[in-house]
Each structure stands twice: as structure tokens, then as C-alpha cells.
Amino acid sequence: MKAPFSPYLNSIAPGLKRLCALLGERYDYVSILSTDSRGFALRASPHVKTVSSETMTTERGTVVRVRRDGLYSEYSLNRFDPAAPEAAALDLTRALDAQLTLLSSMSTKVYETAVMPDEPCTLFAEMETERLPEEEDLSALIARLSALAEDGMRRGDHLVDCTVSALSTHICKLFLTANRDLRQSYVYSEGSVMTVAAEGGKSGMGYRGLSGRCGPELFSGLPARLDEALRDAAELLKAERVVPGEYEIIADPEVAGLIAHEAFGHGVEMDMFVKNRALGASYIGKRVGSDLVTMHEGALAACDVASYAFDDEGTPAGDVIEIDRGILKTGICDALSALRLGVQPTGNGKRENFEHKVYTRMTNTVFEPGTSTLNDMIASVSHGYLLCGCESGMEDPKHWGIQCIVQRGYEILDGRLTGKVIAPVILTGYVPDLLGSISMAGNEASVFGTGGCGKGSKEWVKVSDGGPYLKARAILG
Amino acid sequence: MTAEKLKELLLASGADAWELTCDDTDIWEFYFIRHALDQNRVRNTRHITLRVYRRFEDGKCLGSAGGEIPPTATEEEAAAAIAAYLAAASCVKNPAYTLNTPSGLSRESTAAVDPAESARRFMEVLRSLPETETEDVNSYEIFTGSHRIRFLNSEGIDVSYVRPSSMAEAVLNARRGVKEIELYRKFTGGTCDAEALRRALSLALATGRDKLTAVPTPPLGTCDVLFSGEAAAELYGYFISRVSAAFKVRGYSDCEAGKPLAPSFNGDRVTLRALAALPNSSRNGAFDAEGAPVRDALLIEDGVVRRFIGSRQFSCYLGLSDSFIPGNYAVSGGSCSAEELRSGLCLEAVDFSDFQVDPITGDIAGEIRLAYLRKDGKVTPVSGGSVSGNMRDFIRDMRMSRETEQQDSLLLPALTRLSGVHIAGAARG
Q1: Is A234 helix (H, G, I), strand (E, B) or coil?
Q2: Would you state the CATH architecture of domain B3-211?
């Protein structure tokens, strides 16, 4: 079925168009993004169960972007009355004028930017889903999650908790300018199982997730994730600490995705080029990885939690090849930064929600697969680790450092897995060294979308990333 | 949709209990590239959240469900949402507990925060930093204003308060020849603490010079590491988690009231308090998110757990009748001065990519962006590599400075020394 577009947004669209026209008399560019995204978040553990209608992306509100005298300004509101757009226009101008009074009193210089192009465009995208979150039987679903959690507690050794989560969100967004009317509706879902084991003062935490641009039908995959998370917790309880040093590594597709995300996902967000905060700006056309490294980024590069039809500035979704056989080709760009840099936007202008500013953000960041099998890769390692599962990562676009906290590593000696597990694993290094050392790539890629992505330490958005198994060299600690 | 109308709908809904929060947000935002204004923004929003409760199985179980009701919702939409929450709550079988009851403090007098004045102070500080030809400001973002919060529940609580909220982040550059580095600093608080911000950013500018000359961190094996600032706050977050009622109920904390955090101590012992207020904290407010009055409380004393604390639900499960969700915490200073802590072989970490402490496992991890290796009387700036280890292994020997500093809602020792931290050396770069 098609995910139906929000009746609420349809009902306020005429009022928003009037607001756009009213503001157009005072400002030389006006755009409006209005959102109405609903969903649910269910969590069940033997200790406590919760039901909420809020996920990371549920929202209902409006943000208006205006430009005058070279300055772009924004006003976020969530009490818009479609019968009184004049009142909203007055509130906006009063609020922004109050700021300009302060700025003027401090003789503030403006980073002047041209008027954004506004070619006519209409789009109405309702994407496919089997089910809708707003129609899901939450009573039945919480009962299923509770049963899974109880089952996990029964089966797991030394388990103190087993939390099973299911989140589903129906995203609806309306983007308007004087010449554009874009509307999109899609559903994405994510589920997870977290297991915590404790013994002798030591704790181990397993985590497995699943995600997709689909409805609550996704959650039929949770029982398999429970089995994996139980195994993880048991292994982590007996895990040893790695001796810090440089090793041959095989990154599983999830860790490969984290490396893609932190290395040349954040590294080529071009709003950082505007501020001279990214080394990547001076490496376009130069080698940054081995021949086996080809990397895509874009809402069309995969079908997962961030696969939309247009971004939060009304730019159509894209699929950019950032790195082609080791050569850095281009970055990704929001519309305002593109205007400043004289390039085309790539459909990567995203907001945490209607209350937040647009930044250049990732969507799906994916390494292309190669030709090797996992067995061949393991057989080629003399001493190293198969790294599996992600906890977190951090970018460093200015200096090309990288930090990936990996859940667990399996020791490989003389081409065989020894059964020894290490955890946690902190993978660090210099990005071109790490990507340059990639010597084998698996023949199949997977994408993961259960995590969130921050810009520095804030501005959280949904992204997915992934790739094939990758063999490389890295510093582990 | 108003809080009063929602209260009417909740009273008519048949809910066994309910909670309602209304948050009016007024925030001004400014974004600068160098010192030129990139963009200005205003957030003028209202967020209304509610939670409804159902008692069942003769009152032994209490189920709840909730979420946000848009202020543009019609009466019919709001009533339908409440009905849906009630249906869902009927399937959420949690052990019963009671909601908070009125404390006698019905309404706090509220004072408006002037975002213009706070923004002016932020901008004045950022414009007046001691920039030079080789150290300067790359960009900064300022967020300042307040949340006006009203909380009501079915037990008769109806309290209001203002929570000032500000954040500034700055990116600073230092360069020598063609080499340029950056440092990121973030400040959070109620409003602008101009002196603290100026001091921190001026120090960061000076620190940038050292990062330019930093050499790769050598593979030290294990080493004592000194933590300060945000990284130290992250360390003490582990102790806050240990005494969280939710962590205790879920089995993540094995602490027991009256028992020590470790079998023995060779260093300083942690004393942790919840505080009702700290100067300019962004977490100040007379009530917690569930309407309970906040106050001072001793949580850990000389390394011995005194009590658990947290939300009403988990506190009830532990039999704690006088609990609340703290906004502010204080960790007492230790036995030696910061300078004494810097003696001997140690690595003083001043900048991480993203230092983290897993509150459940106690694992610590962070890539080093800048640290000072103190060895044989010599101080060498180093960069790259990582620190790792587990808090359980560090508690016995950890040492804290007498001097304290405030990181927004946490007062903590200015310097903390952990022994036996694993150090991975740096790659070239």
C-alpha cells in the first residue's frame, strides 16, 4: 500500500501558501517546511514496559526560511493557524526584527549569500509500505515484545536484562516556496534487542538491530536478533582486553559502515568546506584509499531509514559517488552551502526536526562490494581480528583522525578463528592510512540503520551505512 | 489546545491517573562564520506531553502510555489520542506504583529570561577573545533563552517554573605555516557566564599552539591518565549511574546501600551529592519532570553508597518514598592539589574526539586529540592513539584534586587521576 500523505498538512497548505505570499512582499526568498510525522516506540523488558507515541523523528510543526539583505533567517513555530496567516507573518517579522535590532546595535557583519534559485517544481511521493504505524495493534505488539524479552531471560546465562524495542514512524513533509510544492510520505521502522549479562562484577552487553524503509512488518525479524544478542552477551562476558597495537583486521559490514560514515561521510560534508573545517576540500581528485574503495552517499544509494524523496530544503534525493576506486571525487552539500560554494546541492540538507537549522548531513553511506569471500579473507590473516558490531564513532574532518568503538573482536591466528573474543575495541587511525590499507572487500554489502548521527555533539538525524566485509590494517586499543 | 482543555479531557477520559507537561520554548539562535553572521533563528514553540495510567489485576499492576499532543490538535484529535493511550496502557503490565503528590509548593514564582541580553553577552565574549595571526576563531553557534514549564498530575500537583537554557559552541584554529589545526569547545549553562566562557576559550586558543607541535602518542602500554573538563564529567557520570534507581531495578548496578563501591581504596574516595541548585546551571528548577520538589541529597559518602535516587516508578520499586530526579550533582574534591596530581609519569588528556564511559559495563574509551605526556620532568604534547580501560578497575586507586570546577550541572574535581589506563599509540598522520 501507499503511505498516505498527512490530511493535516493538506488542510493547512492553503494557509501556508498565503503565509509564503505575505512574507514574499517583505523578503526576497521564502521557503516553508511543514511536518506531521507520527509513530510509536515500544520497549519491553522483564523489569519494565513502556509505550510512547514519540520516536526520534515524530513531530508536527513548521519552519520558515526567509532572506533579506543577503542574510538568511529562520523562524520555527508549531501553533500555525491556517485561518490567520497574517498573524504568523507578523509574529515572524517581529521576532526576527528584534534579533536584527540587537545585531545592528553590535555592528554585526553579515555573511552575504545570494538568493536561492526557485525553479518551478511539484512532487507528490507516497512510498510503499505493508503496514502503517498508526494502524498497528500496539497491544498485540507489546505482548509479542514482552514474550520475547521473557524468553531471552529464560535462555540467557547470567542475564540481568533483556530489552526488546520496536519503533515505527510515518514521515510526512510539505515543502513550499513561491514556485514549489513538494509533498512526501513514507514509513521507516527499526527494532532492537539489548541483552545485559553480569557475573563476578563484570558486565557484557549484546545489541542487535534491524531497520528498513517499511512498516511494522519489520518486527517479524526480532526473534532472530534475540538469538544473536544472547550469543553476544555470553561472549562479551568472557571477552579479554586487546593488547594495544596495529593489527590486520576484517571489519564486518556494520563496522565497515561505521568506517565509511566517520571517514568520508562526515569528511566531505560541504558545509564544513564553507568554514574551511574539512581537509577533504583540498583532496578532491586525489587518492584517499586503495583501488578497492568506492563509496556512495545519498538518499537513493540504499533503501533504509533515510531514503526520502526530497531533503529539508526541497532538493531531490541523490546518489553521489564520493570515492571512486580510491580517488576522492566530490562531497555532499546542502542548498545554502552549495550556493556559497558555487556547486549543485546533492539532496543532503537535513534538520533534526522543524526546530533545528539545516546542515549538510548524511543519508545512506555505503562502500561498494568487492569479490572476496569471508573465508578467503580470514584465511589470509596471520594475526588479527574479525571486528563485529558497532557502539559509536566520531569524525575529525579537519585532521582525518577516526575513532570507532567496536562491540567485539574475534582473534584470527594463521588464517583461523581461535575462539578468543576481545572487547571493547577502540579502532583509531589516520583515515587515508586506514582506507589505503584495504586489501580485500567482500562480495556482498549490507546496510544498517538503527543508529543516529550527530553533527559534533548535537543535531541528531537518522542515517544508515554499510558495506561488505573489508580487510585492512588498523590500530586497536 | 491548552493545558486546561487537556485537563478537562483527561478528567473525563476514565484514566486512573495522568500527568501533563506544557513546555513553552523561547530560544534565540545565532550562527557565525569567523565573526560574520551566517544565519539567525528564533524558536517559538509549545510542546505538550501527557501520560495516562491504567490500574488492573486488583491494583497490583499499573500500565501507562503517552506522548506529545500537538498544540494545533483539535479537541476530537486530543480525545482520540487519549483514548488510544488508554487502550495501550491497558496492555503494559508493570508492577504498581503511585504518582507524586503535592508538596505544598504549588507554584514557583517565575522570572523571565531576556534572550537578547544573554545573546549580547555571548557575542561580546566571542568577539573579544585574544586572537592573533596564528590563533583565531573559525566559527561559533549561540543558543540562548528559556523553557517555561508547567506540570500537572491527577494527584493535584500543578507547578510552574522557568528553566534558563543556553549553549555556545566555538571552533578555534591555530596554524603554523601551511599546517592548521582546530579545537572544539562547548559551553552549556543557564545563561551566559561571560567570565567562565572567556577563560575557557582563551585557554583553548593557547592550547592550539601545543597541538601544532604535538608528536604521535607513543605506545605506552598502561599509564596514569589525568582527566579534566567534559571527559572528567563523563567519568563521574558512571558514579551517578551506579546510584540510579532505574539502573538498580534493571540489574545494571550491583551497588548496595551501606556498602562500598570497591573492596578496598588506596586513593581518594568519591563523595557524591544531588544538589537542588548550582549557580547558572541549565538544570536548575524547583521541581523535577514528575513534579517532585528537588533538594540536596547525599548519594555516595567516602566511597560508600548511601542511597539510590531517580524517577517515581523505579524509586517506588525500591521502596524509596522521598526520591526525585536530580538536576545537579556535586563530587567533593580529593586530598591533593592539581599540581601534586601532575607529578610522576602520566598523560594529561585535554582534548578527545569523543570520550565515553559506558554506564552499564564501565568501559572507558576515547581517541586522544591532545594530551601532555609528563615524563622525567619534561612535558611533551602528543596526539592520536586512544585510552581505554574499565572504571571498576580504576576506583580503588583513583585520585582527585582538592580544587573543583563546574561543568554546567556538575561540580567536580578539577583534575582526576586514573591509574593503569591502557594506551594505544598513534598512527602516523
Answers
A1: helix
A2: 2-Layer Sandwich (3.30)
